[in-house]
Amino acid sequence: MKVTSVNPKISIVICTYRRYELTRQVVQSFCNQTANKNDFELIIVENDILPHKEIGQIVKEAEERITISCLLEKSIGLSNARNAGGKAALADYVGYIDDDAIAPNSYIEKYLEIIDRLKPDIIGGPIFTIYNSTPPPWFKAEYGSSTNNRLNSYFKSTQYISGTSIGFKKDLLEELNWFDKNLGMTGKKIWYGEETMVQIKAWRKYPNLKVWFDQELFINHLILAPKMKLPGKLKRSFNSGRSSAYLWITENQVAGVQKKALYKLCKTFFYFFTKGMFGLLFHDRKKYPFWQNYVFEVLSQYFSSIGQEWQYARDLLKSNTFKTLSLRRFYHRIKRVYSFYTQKQSHFLRFCNNSFTKQLVLSFDDGPHPIVTRQILAILKKYNVSATFFLSGPAIEKAPDLIKEIYKGGHILGNHGYEHVSFKTLSPDLVISGLERTDNLIGKFADKTEIAFYRPPYGMTTESYLNWIKENSKYTVHWSLDSYDSRNEFNVAQIAEMLLKDIQNGDIVLFHDTRFFTADVLKIIIPELLLRNYRFIRLDEKFN
After folding, report:
1. pLDDT tens for residues 26-61?
2. What's the rounded Cα separation, in Å, for the pair 533 and 537?
């Protein structure tokens, strides 16, 4: 029988992205709680484009023992997922726990005891390290732990609870407008501190904030093998530094900090290569028994400082000051002009013009698709826009009538090979025969005898292929801007926003006319780019 709690005292939110076994493990730990099952609810937030049956199965297995629900948050990002879970919570308190954590059996019982006794605004406890593989001999358990010196206490405004296990009054989160979407994991962007930012804002607004840390409210945190490797630690330190650049300064401090960023970045690099590397050779062997300990504990701090100053410097270079914009425009134009004129000789195209006029090329791979391609053609016709379609042999055979429709619409027909595999996995003869086979299919259905533009699958080329291109006076067309429409971690609005932010004069933009939401992206970006006075050109206007 399904367990349902109408008035839970606390809601626990677990955010996950395709980590099914870890999610099953943490859910199981809540099924074993000693607390009354009606006193808490568990909310699983699947942060993905589409729901996955594995999460549904985990929920189904647990719902006879505890109150559990699952919701899908399509906007990729840990802060988005945490906000969605918190807003769906029924209780006055919302607890967040990572999907690679395991709660002890008394976890909820202790949570409720603290809430009843102290009614704190924010709650947290220790994090202890556990492993699913043997750690290297130099890896200390304390590297993955957080204990506050094993003291129960109210935190001061300079102390912050880890997001691995943290609880808030829901009213407080609502007042602070939830978690900052600029922080936290977002696809491949690894930033930290979304829970710290909430605490910073809470302390600024409420000087008498009650933040309680209790030793009995502990969780066990699973340290996976990649986190016990030095490159991963240094990368996390660097990204933690970048995040701190966003966390710790107020708006009126930004300009002053950014002006000093380049100087401080150079200074930090200097200390890293002198003091830091010297210490690596001559460090205290008692304090750091292994050289890896010195890297983990000392050099990682330099990486954090480098990350912080790097972010300040990057923000300075991206700021809208006249000098910065002038330098960026000058660099951009020199790069595009040079690339434009050298690519003609190499027969390898990445830009469609020399950047002095606003011109773009839209390109579509993997089609034609009987539904998506027609949707795209309708949008292009509506705005009188030309594009280039790189066609795949099997797709042509499935929708041959579309080839002539694309060609008569004023678009260029390009060759995307017969088999959608990397040319590096095929023999030279198979590569060329596949291209010629696709050429013949295009010619057959479009009454077009000459194909000038080719795009290898995944953009992967070989020496024999490039020689064939040059010998036959054809062009390989790469891209300078990927729309990321082939990746599942971004939705329509995110893709459109990224494109409109990143697009530059002369870009060849990569799309796929096999993705059902690509047409929706085009509906957003084409009218906006036309308003910006961009012109969408055919490749043969520049390259005959």
Report:
1. 999 999 999 999 999 999 999 988 888 999 999 999
2. 13
Marked catalytic residue, from 52, 332, 512, 520: 512
Tell me the residue type at 173: L
Q: Establish if 328 belongs to a structural domain.
A: no
156 C-beta neighbours (distance < 10 Å), count = 10
Helix axes 518-531, 372-382, angle to 10 degrees: 10
The pLDDT value given to residue 420: 86
Predicted pLDDT of residue 203:
92
CA 149 to chain centre: 35
252 and 219, same structural domain?
Answer: no
- Give the pLDDT band of residue 83 (cuts 50, 70, 90): very high
- The SS3 assignment for 219 reads strand
Is 5 within a domain?
no
Q: Is residue 372 within 8 Å of 521, Cβ to Cβ?
A: no
Residue that the structure tokens 């996950």 belong to: 16
The yes-or-no answer on residue 411 being catalytic is no
Cβ-count burial 312-350 (b if 16+ within 10 Å, e if not): bbeebeeeeeeeeeeeeeeeebeebbebbeebeeebbbb
Q: How far apart are CA 237 and CA 147, in angstroms?
A: 20
In percent, the amount of the chain with pLDDT more than 70 equals: 90
pLDDT in tens, 330-361: 666 666 666 667 777 778 888 887 656 688 99
Q: Are residues 219 and 360 in the same domain?
A: no
Query: What domain count does the chain have?
Result: 3
From 39, 48, 100, 365, active-site residue: 365
Q: Is residue 365 flagged as an active site residue?
A: yes
* Token pair listed for 160: 């912050």
pLDDT of residue 332: 64
> What radius of gyration do the chain's Cα atoms show?
28
Q: Which domain holds residue 50?
A: 10-227
Q: What's the pTM value of the predicted model, to 2 decimals?
A: 0.59
In the listed set 195, 227, 259, which residue is the last one of a domain according to the structure? 227
**pLDDT confidence of residue 322:** 40
